[in-house]
Task: inverse folding
DNA sequence: CGGAATGTTGAACCGTTTCAAACGGAGTGG
DNA sequence: CCACTCCGTTTGAAACGGTTCAACATTCCG
């Protein structure tokens, strides 16, 4: 089900092909890009250092999160990053970065120079179209997240995030996984959902109480997908994943 | 200060050039696109009808808003649209639309066929780069909005939106305007900020009470920009507007 | 083993919502 | 010109969802 290959850039190809058709030629030329690889421990900032300034960062394995910090020290997590995502496209096109990215789990990241990427795009403009498509999907996720935080109550917020993670954590467009290791603390869940870690805790317990999920440590099992999804108001279309499996919701 | 031209597509060129450099050739070829124009009254859905299905919609004048509706009837406004914005790029690249757009004021909209646009892009790939840049700026705004709704209290939320509107409503990259007609009802403000219209009302009054703003009907005057911006935690960089004026904040 | 980070629980508190009623202005028809 | 209606705004009082603070339990990790 997953494309078998240990080439780091294959993660990018896999991800792009979730949302668009990608030609063999485009794929081949992407895989020819020069890159430098780095490892990051959980909790560290996912950012290229020093001489890699004019580079794009690609998350190859592991999970990360995007966040912004308020002056008062409050933090809002604005996105979860999965393998194949380019972490700082914005910097390449806008020469300015707002927000930061950190590793939730141990991560492998790859740096590709803007120059190489621009040369590739000049030769194969379709690559830029793929990037645009990715940006639009990310925008779509961001807007749904906004709905979650703005208009859903705590139970629906937590449920919605659990549903999204079930779809995204294995990252190959298959139906939602039914059981997974939550990659974030309850405090991070709170920062993502606009809640307190205390209230996230109580909400998780209430979801367990009515049998929607089961929980062992950070291990989440979705016991009743239909119930959880309806409670969350979850409609997977906003993820814009070309359905390959047989997933109703 | 505004580019003087009554060609509808000039609004697009103006907007694109807020965030990127745009060559005279690209500009000229954009202006040659065939289009069809439509008017919409305040409150109406901004969407091309029937035979204009495979078209992109460009907002030429007026203000609109994007929103998503929950099953329970609750609504979250996820963006404000100003002239020059393409309303449904997503549909062109992802063949699927989530969310809707409505007119806040009377709007002029122009439709451009996907086919024409694709042909233009094939000839001038740089146009796609401009669209990508726009999408990234919109993503940036969407994330800041998420911070607003997730982690700011009611006063900061309202203040932040007022600051953003001061920057965007006249739409040509100049310093924030100090006085403007709020294009939305308090209920719409609430739907945008994840608040109740009742509480928006009280919050506006409290902003008036401490002298940050003045208000006459829907007319908003920012009396103390520094105060309002600091109260909101507003940092205009997320708008990614190439500063032309002399604006500190 | 010890210490730090994360998770859990209770009780009091507070920002925001809810509900309900009244007010104001704009537009319409008599 | 008045009466009427509609829509948005304003105000008050009560209720609620979520926060805060603080203490304790647990897990993780060196």
Result:
């Amino acid at each position: 089900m997953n494309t078998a290959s240990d080439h780091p850039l294959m993660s990018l190809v896999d991800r792009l092909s979730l949302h668009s058709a990608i030609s063999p030629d485009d794929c081949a030329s992407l895989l020819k890009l020069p890159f430098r690889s780095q490892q990051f421990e959980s909790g560290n900032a996912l950012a290229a250092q020093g001489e890699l300034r004019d580079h794009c960062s690609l998350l190859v394995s592991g999970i990360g999160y995007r966040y912004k910090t308020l002056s008062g020290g409050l933090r809002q997590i604005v996105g979860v990053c999965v393998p194949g995502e380019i972490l700082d496209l914005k910097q390449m096109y806008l020469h300015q970065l707002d927000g930061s990215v950190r590793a939730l789990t141990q991560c492998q990241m790859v740096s590709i120079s803007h120059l190489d990427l621009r040369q590739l795009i000049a030769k194969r403009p379709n690559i830029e179209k793929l990037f645009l498509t990715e940006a639009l999907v990310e925008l779509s996720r961001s807007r749904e997240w906004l709905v979650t935080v703005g208009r859903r109550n705590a139970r629906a917020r937590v449920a919605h995030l659990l549903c999204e993670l079930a779809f995204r954590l294995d990252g190959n467009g298959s139906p939602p996984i039914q059981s997974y290791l939550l990659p974030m603390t309850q405090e991070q869940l709170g920062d993502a959902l606009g809640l307190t870690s205390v209230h996230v805790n109580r909400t998780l317990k209430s979801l367990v109480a009515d049998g929607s999920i089961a929980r062992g440590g950070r291990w989440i099992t979705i016991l009743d997908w239909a119930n959880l999804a309806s409670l969350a108001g979850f409609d997977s279309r906003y993820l814009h994943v070309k359905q390959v499996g047989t997933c109703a919701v």
In short: Chain B touches chain A through 49 residues (CB under 8 Å). Residues 42 and 105 of chain B are 4 Å apart (CA to CA). The first strand of chain B starts at residue 36 and ends at 40. Chain B has nine helices and nine strands.
